[in-house]
Amino acid sequence: MVSITESIQPAIAHARRILFEPFSARKWFVLGFSAFLAHLGGGGGSFNYNGNPFDRSSSGATPDFSPVTTWISEHLPLVIALAVVFFILMLALAVVFQWLSSRGQLMFLDGVVRNQADIVEPWTRLRHLGNDLFRFRIMLLLATLALFLVCGGLGALIALPDIHARTFGGAAFAGVLVGCGLLILGILVLSLIGALLHDFVVPIMYHRELSVAAAWQVLRRELLPGHGWQFAGFYLMYILLWIGATLLMLLGCCLTCCIAILPYISSVVFLPIFVFFRCYALEFLAQFGDGWRIIQVPEPLVES
What we know:
This protein is mostly helical and 304 residues long. It has one domain. The protein has helices spanning 8-20, 25-38, 66-74, 76-114, 120-125, 127-158, 160-165, 170-208, 212-223, 228-255, 265-269, 271-286.
């Protein structure tokens, strides 16, 4: 029987063995760097507040944007060119992050599986797998962009009569409903693909030296049949565990005056959390048979 809870204790034990038996600051910083690279493509956020709660001088006043709109209308070609350049730069940055993250995922997995902390050797050894993963993730990124364009275009097409009439009626409501509904459905599907890719397809690639396409076939033919509910339970448990982990991370940020939220520093400070979740998926996979035990556990010493 494949259980969603029996993987928790072995994952904790392996994370403890990697990070604390014995403790090595070098291992934390090196493995934390791999975790940092692995999460580059996942995006991020920041909290910014520039307002002054004690400044009441403009309270109740409507801001005047006429100078801005006038300047934009007078320099429209320049504004469009800058917007295009900004979009291209952001797209290029996203591609670079996806490339680094694809290699980082395999490096971090390699460090967790082998209980080693290295950068140069796995970076070179896992290059072919990382490049193949990168190509698939770029297609996934393009599919996400296409989803937004299609849903937005379809919604606008349905709402076109109300757009021409400059009113919000039944057509506009139907456009919003259809566009948002399809967008939410598409995001759920793409999120599931991304989760399966990270948690199971990448370990299959690593374990069997397979391409992304071949690893998906292995997942579909050897693991998913007859175990759909177990995979669904795995992700329900994953969400619950991440809620607890998020609370711990928020507590850590508060205790360190938000220093722990800085890039790379966060990957080192919260490395036990990232290692545990990587191990949790691997231990779940190990329940499918000895051939799926990817984590290398040292044999206990036998006294002579």
